[in-house]
UniProtKB/TrEMBL annotation:
Organism field: Oryza brachyantha
Superkingdom, natural source: Eukaryota
Record's signal peptide: 1-24
The name this protein goes by in its record: Myb/SANT-like domain-containing protein
Keywords (A to Z) from UniProt: Signal
Length: 142
């Protein structure tokens, strides 16, 4: 039973930490600049948002949230950098996919245009006086 309670408590703590990070990032235009804002408006907003979404027994004040932020600020910054890098990679992959699709469509259009240009030339060939393949093949055998 003790192991279960320890596990449950660690899950609750992890969820609270994720919620705090989410609140910090959602209330900040730039997470790197959030701590250096003047006044307490940022931290008041963070505390208000955090306390709205957490059960009554887990609510925190501004100083508590600030102190916890400073303990894990390096991890939050690293997460934000990784998240930004993954967004960039996804954007680049989408651009590359669009380029590949456009090239494929261009080749298809070129092939259709070539066929359309060749078709009238084929119709202009005088086939009335041309010996058919079957006739020429039979003549070779004789």
């Amino acid at each position: 039973m003790k192991d279960f309670l320890t596990c449950a408590w660690s899950i609750v703590c992890c969820m609270c930490m994720l919620l705090q990070v989410s609140v910090w990032l959602n209330n900040s235009i730039d997470p790197f600049e959030s701590v250096s804002r003047k006044g307490e408006t940022y931290w008041t907003q963070v505390a208000k948002t955090y306390n709205k979404t957490i059960p009554d027994g887990r609510k925190r004040d501004v100083d508590s949230l600030k102190g916890h932020y400073h303990k894990i600020t390096n991890k939050v910054t690293l997460f934000n950098v990784c998240h930004g890098a993954s967004d960039k990679r996804l954007e680049v992959a989408n651009i590359q996919l669009k380029v590949v699709v456009e090239r494929k469509e261009a080749k298809l259009i070129k092939a259709r245009n070539t066929a359309m240009d060749t078709f009238p030339q084929m119709l202009q060939v005088d086939t009335f006086n041309t010996e058919s393949w079957a006739d020429s093949h039979l003549l070779d055998q004789l």
